[in-house]
């Protein structure tokens, strides 16, 4: 039985990437060594990092005002590393709390300076995005989660602000052409749309650094990582290599425009199917629906367990909603083929007919 991997993260990667990564474990670039055995300061690996940085900038259309870093600690570490590097008692972090991840960004930033939650959508269980943000004049930065992985909302147009703009793009990075240059910091854990777990992409506009009064430990200091060319200490070599393979794959497919075309085709098919079947409903405001993670429910909640059991028996992996949200969540990252979403929609239709 073919498996369809709808996991929310770590999640599906392109087959070509898996094949190439497997080959590199035995013999990396004809060195006779495994990618797991090469030194991180060898030319071989420095070339990997450099190429990955170049592709990131090319895909994002960013110039040398920005630096690309591959760090550790996940997107979760960025919840504290961003404020540690950018926020002090004289500043203010304006943060959108539109779900599980934005909420964590609020809590961590509060350890480093004043925080104002400029959008809290808990009143409607985070099923929409509030775009009317009152951002205080003295705000240092505005932090948004561009795609709310757990709740299934996504910013399709970013808020305008006089403050710096910080984006947690963990779950929609490289899924569409977008205004990357509106941001001063972009970060994303690799395991959703970019590569193997263990590395976090951080893209920073250099000029924003060094403006606060705080001693920052070197390992948490963006400036030190920039000066070290993202090789301050031993980086997660294999995760960065798999990210490079995925970045190459994205370019070979036609870049972000091609990704978006495919992602829209998949998500339109799924949302249209949900909306057409009375057995299912999606509570997310239509204009805010995510093209990466679709969150929806069975109209009759007693049918949820049988539907999930059917999904399991048909090889549909990872479609159970997040534990605090419930329902169904279907993640359709870049590597997910259209045919998998089609197979899932066919299953929904046949389930709806029989129940
Ligand atoms: C998965 C996710 C995170 C957490 O990432 P880790 O790498 O596990 O720390 C943070 N933000 C968003 C939007 C996510 O989807």
The number of helical elements comes to 9
Q: Provide the CATH top-level class of the largest domain.
A: Alpha Beta
How many separate domains? 2
Q: Strand tally, please?
A: 14
The rounded Rg comes to: 21 Å
- Give the helix proportion (percent range): 25-40%
N→C terminal distance: 24 Å
Q: What fold name stands as the CATH topology of the largest domain?
A: Aspartate Aminotransferase, domain 2
CATH-scheme architecture of the largest domain: 3-Layer(aba) Sandwich
Structural class: alpha/beta
The parts where pLDDT drops under 50 for at least 5 residues are: none
Q: What share of the residues does DSSP label as strand, in percent? A: 15-25%
Give short descriptive properties of this protein.
355 residues; alpha/beta; Aspartate Aminotransferase, domain 2; Aspartate Aminotransferase, domain 1; 2 domains; 7-stranded mixed sheet; 3-stranded antiparallel sheet; 35% helix; globular; binds pyridoxal-5'-phosphate
What does this structure look like?
It is a single chain. This protein has 355 residues and is of the alpha/beta class. The protein has 2 domains: 15-253, Type I PLP-dependent aspartate aminotransferase-like (Major domain) (Aspartate Aminotransferase, domain 2), CATH 3.40.640; 256-354, Alpha-Beta Complex (Aspartate Aminotransferase, domain 1), CATH 3.90.1150.10. 35% of the residues lie in helices and 16% in strands. The chain has 9 helices and 14 strands. It has helices spanning 15-26, 43-60, 74-86, 100-109, 222-227, 237-253, 255-276, 304-313, 338-354, and strands spanning 4-5, 66-71, 93-97, 115-120, 141-145, 147-148, 153-154, 164-168, 185-189, 200-205, 280-281, 293-298, 316-317, 328-331. The strands form 4 sheets. The chain has a 7-stranded mixed beta sheet, with helices on both faces. Strands 11-12-14 form a 3-stranded antiparallel beta sheet, covered by helices on one side. Strand 3 (93-97), helix 4 and strand 4 (115-120) form a beta-alpha-beta unit. The model has no long low-confidence stretch (mean pLDDT 97). It binds pyridoxal-5'-phosphate (PLP). Pyridoxal-5'-phosphate is lined by residues 9, 74-76, 101, 145, 149, 168, 170-171, 189, 192.
